[in-house]
Write the structure tokens for this entry.
Amino acid sequence: MNTSVERFILAAIPGGIIWGWLSMVVNSVSGAFAFEGSFVHDLTTFATGGAIFGVLVAGFLSLMGDKLPFKSRLLRAVFVSTSLWILLRIGGALLSHMDNERYHIVTSQTIQGFFMAIILGCILYPLWKKESVDQAM
Amino acid sequence: METIVISEKKAFLKAFLPALIVVALAFAMVVIAYGIEPVAPGVHDVFHDFRHVIGMPCH
């Protein structure tokens, strides 16, 4: 029998995949970055990357989501996903400071990434809400 | 007996979940977010487009 936490983290995989593919759509519309890989390659890598980030955010939500000082669960989910993104972005900024050529910052992509982090939180929120209800029962 | 098995599983999860998350985060940073070639050769190209789209700095 799976615990609700396990089910949530497993459910975050397809949620993350959808988020990854949604990122492709959003980027195609915004034009922030011109895709360099083939469509099939990007479909695979975006799904993989999205799944991993989905699992990461779900893990953090399971660990600390209930301890956050927000009444709204949606706000907590978005806070965790954007905080993780900001953490990674700060790391990227430090790397860029050390090697500007290798780690080049583009403002439009940064803004897009931040909004995609918010969307990831919104995607995982209903899954987390269901896990919390299952745990309470 | 079933109650004990479920409790042991929950205890295992509670103990190892933070460690698993840290490992997953380190993996995500090296392979996906930053594409650190010296650590994992080839990862820069694999997740190159994804890295740009989510706003991480790259070439």
Remarks:
- The radius of gyration of chain B is 17 Å.
- Residues 21-59 of chain B form one domain.
- Chain B touches chain A at residues 6, 9-10, 13, 17-18, 20-21, 24-25, 27-29, 32-34, 46-50, 52-59 (CB under 8 Å).
